[in-house]
Amino acid sequence: MFQDLTVFQKVYETRSITKAAKDLYVTQPNVSIQIKKLEESLGVQLFIRNGNKGLVPTDNANRFYRDSQIILQNWENSLNHLVRSHHSKRIRCVIGVSPTTSLFVLPKLMENLQSYFDEFDFEIITADSEDILEEIMKHEIAFGILEKPFAAQQVEQMAFASDELVLAGDLESQEWLIAGAGSTQREYTERYFNEHHLRPTHLLKVNDDNLIAKLVNLRIGKAIVSKRSIVDTLLPYQQLSPDFRREFYLLNPKIATSTEVQKLINRIKTLLPQFHY
pTM, whole model, 2 decimals? Predict the structure, then answer.
């Protein structure tokens, strides 16, 4: 039963038999057969096959996904309690952060989580917001700290701080620093271009928001950056409209992988709004 639930969840999360099979290290026919048998056993259709668009979950699949999360969570909790009682196993907790929040938010948070170091093995991953969301939905990341909101059925988010963006650097330069696709820095830079009807020909593409801030501080071109990154410098900057203010968000699955992780997330929800950023 637990294997069937795991296969179903992977197909539901990836919307693809092929991707689910790859993630589970099994064959595609094996996954297809298990989903078909599960549908026959439950007496309902879980997915609608929609050609090149992949699989579309039915309302029954949406309900069953939530129920299956509870079932597997309870099972995992039971195993964790048994293992810890016999082997004192520590709990793995992976934190996903964007480049910006890794610099301005994460250090304060980890400083206040030191009392949890005896219980948790923390692992920190820096990635784009979309990648962190995907890993949260797959339960590979316990929670994420991002500067981008998402509307996803399986996750919840909480805004806890504002971040002002400015145009900074050598303001007379023709060289623009711009991040890769998926970065909020790129989104706001392109918004600036559109609002001012600009089509710059000198673009320096940098796949790291923190590196962009460092280059700008050396007066290498100009860029849309967080005002926090230049607050202690004499770097010229230009204030922008209120449209260039973003929020920092805590993103976590609605159902955590264990009771202990859920308690940790609840604690973090109380901590983050209290910090001075």
Answer: 0.67
